[in-house]
Amino acid sequence: MQISPEQLVQLGAIGWRTETLLPADTVGKLVRVIAQHRNGYRVHDGVEEFGAQPAPRFLKRDADPQIRPAVGDFVLLAPLGPALIETVLPRRSLLTRAAAGERYQRQSIAANVDSVIVLMGLDGDFNPRRIERYLLLIEGSGALPVIALSKQDLLSADNCAAAIAAMHEVVPPQTPVFAINAKDEKSVAVLLPFLGLGASVVLVGSSGAGKSTLTNTLIGHQRQATGEVREHDSRGRHTTTHRALIQLPSGGCLIDTPGMRELKLTGEEDLAAASFADIDALAQTCRFSDCAHAAEPGCAILAALASGELDQGRWDSYIKLRDERDAASDSLEAQLKRKAEGRVPGKALNKRTAEKYGRS
Questions:
Q1: What confidence tens digit (pLDDT) does each residue in 197-227 have?
Q2: Residues of the chain with CATH 3.40.50.300
Q3: % pLDDT > 90, the chain
Q4: Is 335 annotated as a binding residue?
Q5: Could you say which of 97, 173, 284, 322 is the most buried, measured as most Cβ atoms within 10 Å of its Cβ?
Q6: Which CATH code for domain 94-256?
Q7: Which family does it belong to (predicted)?
Q8: Are 34 and 40 within 8 A, CB to CB?
């Protein structure tokens, strides 16, 4: 079942050709996932919103979480019967993180987005070092980061300028950084170039940073619930309880997300490509290719730390994130190995059972 180019744009598919998403022999209805709940999904076909259920294979316990439908996905519904998600179409981007807990598992946050707006409050929530973690997760997603510092009205113009300067010290030069008042329509207009016709954006940040307030301002009315933050740490309660894609008056699609208390790395992040290219470049000039940057002669990192060229806090952050990334990578490798080893005995047992009792 074909869908018009106009409907594709309304669903946030700017620049996508209908024939790219839908080959001529496609069977099924194209829709976009706009919300995920415990009891199913909400999807939109460019005309109306309705509920849909995932095909049984997506619900298998051993299924890779990344193959399951995520908010922002373009999917095909079964041609007959109730709305059943049969196929997840190839993604142009996917923002993920490691799920909370000790067992390694990736959690999909949003699919097919052009930009990720990281919202951070200019109150007790302000922490430039945390942005480095967001940038690592965004770098491998295929989307571009945008930093929005909310609660601009709490600070003087000079203090806002200082906060923006502090942020520029930890983000790559090409990363946009804005200070906004999420309650003020004129103030948030700086974000509209990223929210134009057919664009898709996901909004992330801590609870209490103002994501729901910003969403309401961009929509033009009170849709998302908002709440007060705690005085001692400027954190808020989760007023957004699930990820949801919202069509904006500006023509774009915005995915609002619950506040993230934990940002665990997946183990596949590229530190140099995210925000540590300067440290990577320094390390390349060390005398020894396997330099541990501890006490080796000719270590460019140690020299840069001693001269003040490299900030000690930035280096400490790099080491912390590198070690966490490597630990997550080791956990992933071990888990994949256990799965591979588990399949062999299982197959052998099935074979012995079939030989003894015959195949059913």
A1: 889 999 998 878 889 899 999 998 666 544 4
A2: 94-256
A3: 48
A4: no
A5: 97
A6: 3.40.50.300
A7: Belongs to the TRAFAC class YlqF/YawG GTPase family. RsgA subfamily.
A8: no
Torsion of CA 134, 140, 142, 144, to 10 degrees: 30
* Distance set, CA 122 to CA 77, 165, 189, 223 (Å): 44, 13, 18, 24
29 is in an annotated binding site: no
Per-residue pLDDT at 345: 52
For residue 212, say whether it is annotated as part of any ligand binding site. yes
Q: Give the pLDDT confidence score for residue 232 in this predicted structure.
A: 47
Q: Is the CB of residue 267 less than 8 Å from the CB of residue 325?
A: yes
Long-range contact list for 339-343, CB < 8 A, 24+ apart? Answer: 339/62
Q: Is 232 annotated as a binding residue?
A: no
Residue 312 assigned as binding residue = no
CA-to-CA distance for 164 and 159, rounded, in angstroms?
9
Quick one: average pLDDT of 53-66? 88
Torsion of CA 164, 167, 172, 176, to 10 degrees: -40
Structure tokens at 37: 């709940």
209 is in an annotated binding site: yes
Annotated binding residue at 251?
Answer: no
331 marked ligand binding residue: no
Would you say 213 is a known binding-site residue? yes
CATH 2.40.50.140 residue window(s) in the chain = 5-88
Which CATH superfamily, name and number, covers 5-88? Answer: Nucleic acid-binding proteins (2.40.50.140)
299 annotated among ligand-binding-site residues: yes
Residue 93 near residue 138 (C-beta atoms within 8 A): no
In whole angstroms, how far apart are CA 71 and each of 33, 42, 158, 223, 278? 5, 9, 39, 18, 35
Strands 74-77 and 84-88: antiparallel
The answer to whether 55 is annotated as binding is no
The annotation status of 123 as a binding-site residue, yes or no, is: no
Q: Which helix (H) or strand (E) holds 78?
A: none
- pLDDT, tens only, 75-130: 999 988 899 999 999 898 999 988 765 555 778 899 999 999 999 999 888 888 88
Q: Residue 86 is which amino acid?
A: E
Q: Please tell me the distance from the alpha carbon of residue 115 to that of residue 266, in angstroms, as a whole number.
A: 20
Handedness of CA 291, 294, 296, 298 (dihedral sign): positive
